Amino acid sequence: SAVISQKPSRDICQRGTSLTIQCQVDSQVTMMFWYRQQPGQSLTLIATANQGSEATYESGFVIDKFPISRPNLTFSTLTVSNMSPEDSSIYLCSVRLTGGGLIRYEQYFGPGTRLTVT
Amino acid sequence: QKEVEQNSGPLSVPEGAIASLNCTYSDRGSQSFFWYRQYSGKSPELIMSIYSNGDKEDGRFTAQLNKASQYVSLLIRDSQPSDSATYLCAVNKLAGGGNKLTFGTGTQLKVEL
Questions:
Q1: What residues of chain A lie within 8 A of the CB of B31, using their CB?
Q2: Is B99's CB within 8 Å of A105's CB?
Q3: By the CB < 8 Å criterion, does B61 face chain A?
Q4: Residue A21: per-residue pLDDT
């Protein structure tokens, strides 16, 4: 597996503001993903962060609301823009490791960012 | 019909017993299957992956896959109080869905002394 860190670990923000969440991995990875886990719910994929190109968003998520950057193979950011209380959630980045000549689809998660919007 | 379904629980088992967690999925094109453990306030931790029909054992954990029945399960032998957590089933679809993992809503397991 990989060591994945996220910053900040938690934040309380006012509605209408934006927060950028950082995800750092200790090794180069091809695939990075951003998920949301709302209170008491399971994980929902927001987007796949593509290195060197625009992120691929899932249905219901748009770039204007959740802009994503992926400047290199070890780092990505997710911004939650113009926040409302409905954006209160845990935001998680995950990575898919490759190597050894095998195609594997396991994903490993960072510790998460707990966001509260007031 | 949800893409990945799990009984939300809670599933209560006594310490030392076998816990059996079940998951069904709707897309026959699904290729790989995962079990994650999530403690309260923590992020999901991968504990098992299975790609082929049959059983896969790792320590006290056994994953079972039956693609014909679209069913995957996780058995935890000699359950310990530290196994108390929510267990998430995840399914990966390759065709069209790319590398997307779809998660079930999770089953809460409580191991009682």
A1: 105
A2: yes
A3: no
A4: 98
Provide the shortest C-alpha distance from residue A41 to chain B (in Å).
6
Q: Which of residues 76-105 of B touch A (CB under 8 A)?
A: 88, 90, 92, 98-105
Tell me the per-residue pLDDT of B44-83, one tens digit each, with 9 for 90 and over. 999 999 999 999 999 999 999 999 999 999 999 999 999 9
pLDDT in tens, B18-36: 999 999 999 888 889 999 9
Under 8 Å CB pairs connecting chains A and B tally to 50
Q: Write the CA distances from A29 to A63, B48, B83, B93, integer angstroms.
A: 22, 21, 30, 20
* pLDDT tens for each residue of A7-52: 999 999 999 999 999 999 999 888 899 999 998 888 999 999 988 8
Query: Alpha carbon of A1 to those of A65, A96, B42: distances in Å?
Result: 31, 9, 17
CA distance A82 to A13: 10
Structure tokens at A33: 């993903």
Residue with tokens 């310490």: B15
Buried residues in B63-80 as b, exposed as e (16+ CB within 10 A): bbbeeeebebbbbbeebe
Cα–Cα distance measured from residue A31 to residue A28, given in angstroms and rounded to the nearest whole number: 9
